[in-house]
Fold each of these.
Amino acid sequence: MKILSVTLTVEDLAESVRFYRDVLNMTVDENAEQALIHAGSSRLILIPGERFDGVHHLAFGIVPSEFELAHSWLSTRAPILVDNGSEIIHGPAGWNSRSLYFLGPEDIILELIARDADAEEKSANGESPRILSISEIGIGVPDVPATVTRLSEDLAISPFFEPGDAFAPLGDDDGLLIVVRQERIWFPTKTLRPARGSLAVRIESSIANKQIDLTSAISIATTGSAH
């Protein structure tokens, strides 16, 4: 499953543009209504909106051979979050990945993730790591099992691992929807919970063999009543 685009609302569009362009060195096309950020084969679209409760989580996939470069490069640009005393965070069993977490504008939890599945991807041999795509997008919902059922049955998006009541990754190594309960605290922070702000995701699913806009499905899932 490939994540083609993610659309989020931000309170301060200019500040978000500055961060992605000047701190992360990403190409940004902007106008008064929105900013389009190029993230490899994916696009991150930011539009102005009112402040909301919670924060979003977004992971950018990078070339595994550039992970050490990414670590040293990022450490001079943004404070890297720590888990158990380490800035380098390995994924759960079977995830086969290494990650660096950091906060972006309006406390969005950003991640650079290097997956073993992308080992054949070539280095750009530049000063900054090559971003392959938006690898993961976090989605906070009141009912995780119900959302998993909806996305699995209606849109043919399969679980990556066995889903639980509070956490369920859907998709594959090319792209994951990280579906979590709205009250769950985002790893590796101690206080930040999933956003209740506007979120739209457009994917290309090899299972369904078509491009799918998840806007309505996610809207229903995130605004439904808690159980």
Amino acid sequence: CGDLEPDPGEDWMGAIESEVAALIDRGLRPLCLGGDHSITYPILKAVANRCGKISILHFDAHPDLYDEFQGNRYSHASPFARIMEDGLADRLVQVGIRTMNGHQREQAERFGVEVIDMKGRRDDRIFEFDSPLYISFDMDGLDPSCAPGVSHREPGGLSVREALGVIQSTRGRVVGADVVEFNPLMDPMNMTSVVCAKLVKEISAKMLAAPPAAFDIG
């Protein structure tokens, strides 16, 4: 559907929400490429307003649950605090986390977030979701050896194979997704862009796997 580039001074969150809502109203399922993780909040607002409460499968090194970060409540480090605060999701599962601090632990407990950190993850875990599912994939959820083209590298992350295994084994009807935080300036060999393309392919396949009726949005 092309790129969305709000003008300086424009309400960019409103522009994202409006554009995604228009796509859904046309019967399309959004798979959005970003951009930092702040874009997930307005995307989710559009999806949830048409699907009702949803579940979220979130891949990331960071929980992105700060109430505010550097004075900004809508920063890349805060989208899931806003999403859960607004009641847009009834379940949030986070995979690949390895940077929790005290404040974000409190936030996770407050919102009932299921945090699967790298220390506690298992290859045989299968996630099942009853409500419509949205997948949000932050590229720094992967280990930097697999995806160096990110702004906030955190060693000890998921391999590409491990991430694909989670996506492929997850049970649920996927109504939308995003792949965010790819920084091409940090990816001189184009290694991360290839991984991004693979993730887009696999997530797209997951979105198409359910029968069409599963994506009816009222």
